[in-house]
């Protein structure tokens, strides 16, 4: 059975991936900054080997990578230093190669298409200079895996996480949805919102790991469903179930430009390129690859305790 080194193992995608790999009987190793956290404990219970340390701790990385066949690379961005994360990716790729890793699967972002020749949106909908740098940093992370000397590599570029509507990710700029019953965003009434379930993302990684040739060399746009924004908010409100209405408020081009000029960092509330996200996706292929994607309604049902806790202040039970 192969062994996979998973970065961000205690995160949303990483945890789901660890569970799926362990269910297959594969070995999983990872580093964590906090071995006592609840998510680290859950991973330990299912047999994930955790090494205390972070992405800059070479000794911990070497220990974790020793004996691994495969690497899953998912690094959080650093919006204050666009060089930091690509350098980390390069270092981890080199350590993985030295440890004998043969295959790498990376997770970056759908936004990378928006700065790429051939897939860029029209110039007037280009990402702002700030997000252009962010996406180039993501592309440099991808490049680190492509240049890493692995026999096989795959890049997964996910859309908007369904989990962003729930604790804890709602604090990444979406609390307006909970607190005001509105979502001010830079989409339009007719642009499909590429939502992705983190469990589906993990399934794509597993599919790539199980058949290294299948997705080798691919930069795969990953979404689970593409509802209109208001449809998604209606489904969320129905799942909360207290009769509330959550209204989508769409920013005009001028309003988006104003938010950008004021230094707005909230991608979905400032950047018009998000309107083009469905140009990069192929739901038919994605469905076939993992044999069924998770609809937002299904996600909300599966995560109903998280919905209650986030929107009604109730703990699960
Ligand atoms: N949210 C979205 O809509 C969206 C869309 C597209 C792409 N993405 C990408 O998805 C990725 C995030 O994935 P996720 O949501 O699964 O992650 P997550 O839930 O935020 O978890 C991130 C994990 O990273 C670990 N970590 C943080 N800083 C670290 C450091 N300095 N050294 C070592 N470990 C560190 C933490 O683990 P420990 O504390 O246990 O060490 C944490 O569990 C990012 O690359 C993001 O750009 C997100």
Automatic annotation (TrEMBL):
Domain of life: Eukaryota
GO cellular component terms, semicolon-separated: nucleus
InterPro entries, alphabetized: NAD(P)-bd_dom_sf, NmrA-like, NmrA-like_oxidored
Gene Ontology molecular-function annotations: oxidoreductase activity
Transmembrane domains' residue ranges: none
SUPFAM superfamilies, per the entry: NAD(P)-binding Rossmann-fold domains (SSF51735)
Residue ranges constituting the NmrA-like domain according to the UniProt record: 3-226
Presence of keyword NADP: yes
Family: Belongs to the NmrA-type oxidoreductase family.
Protein name per the record: NmrA-like domain-containing protein
Lineage, highest ranks first: Eukaryota, Fungi, Dikarya, Ascomycota, Pezizomycotina
